Structures are given as structure tokens and as C-alpha cells.
């Protein structure tokens, strides 16, 4: 009797597994096509990663962000140079072109303290690049 119960369990488990894989795939493909279509119609190329290259390629963001008060900049990896370069450029665009005045960073209190002191007291002879060296 125990062997039959195990057999029934494996048949039911396998059936549910196969159904979920087969049905899940078709639903996934349907949504994938919708997502790809949305990305094609709503994306635009970014020509430069580094700051100081102007903002001509970022102008579509003005329309997208016109009613926005908070912008979150995530990252696909932690610590990659290109991600920080792009964030620097986007922060520069948000501040200079769109008038954003507050920036919150994901960092420890100790890591942010030199930045806070620079903003509050602007010590003579202290360059922002010296503060942000990691």
C-alpha cells in the first residue's frame, strides 16, 4: 500500500510540475512580447556615460519626469564604474536641467559625513573630488 501511495504522489507531483512549466511558458511569452513592445516604444539611446558631455541625449527624460518629485536611481551591480558614471551624469542632469535640489545616497553614515560637511560648511581648499574618492 505504501508503494502505491508513493507512486500516486510522484504522478500527481510530476503532473503539476509539467503543467506549471507548460502553462507558465505560454503566459511568460505573452507578457514578454508586451514588455518588449513597450520598451521599444518608450526607450531612447543614451550616447554618453560620463558627465560633462551635454544633455542633448537625455532630453526625453524631461517629458517623462515632468510631474515627478522623487527619482530613484537603482543599479544592476554594486561598484561598477559605468554605473557610477551614469548616475553622476543623471544626477547632474536632474540638478542642472530639471531643478532637483535634494540627493539621497545609499551609503553608510560614516561614508556620507564628509559630503555632508562639505555641503554645510564648504571648507576652503577642499575639492569635491577629494571627498568622493572611494
TrEMBL record:
Q: Which Gene3D superfamilies match?
A: EreA-like (biosynthetic domain), EreA-like, domain 2
The family database entries (InterPro entries) matched by this protein are listed as: Hydrolase/PRTase-associated
Query: This protein's superkingdom?
Result: Bacteria
Q: Which chain regions cross the lipid bilayer?
A: none
Name of this chain's protein:
Erythromycin esterase family protein
Which species? Answer: Rhodocytophaga rosea
The opening ranks of the lineage are:
Bacteria, Pseudomonadati, Bacteroidota, Cytophagia, Cytophagales
Amino acid at each position: 500500500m505504501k508503494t502505491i501511495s508513493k507512486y500516486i504522489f510522484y504522478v500527481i507531483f510530476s503532473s503539476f510540475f509539467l503543467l506549471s512549466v507548460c502553462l507558465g511558458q505560454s503566459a511568460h511569452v505573452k507578457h514578454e512580447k508586451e514588455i518588449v513592445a513597450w520598451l521599444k516604444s518608450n526607450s531612447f539611446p543614451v550616447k554618453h556615460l560620463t558627465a560633462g558631455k551635454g544633455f542633448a541625449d537625455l532630453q526625453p527624460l524631461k517629458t517623462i519626469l515632468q510631474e515627478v518629485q522623487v527619482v530613484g536611481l537603482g543599479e544592476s551591480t554594486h561598484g561598477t564604474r559605468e554605473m557610477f558614471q551614469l548616475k553622476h551624469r543623471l544626477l547632474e542632469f536632474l540638478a542642472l536641467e530639471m531643478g532637483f535640489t535634494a540627493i539621497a545616497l545609499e551609503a553608510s553614515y560614516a561614508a556620507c559625513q564628509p559630503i555632508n560637511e562639505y555641503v554645510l560648511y564648504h571648507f576652503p581648499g577642499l575639492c569635491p573630488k577629494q571627498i568622493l574618492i572611494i
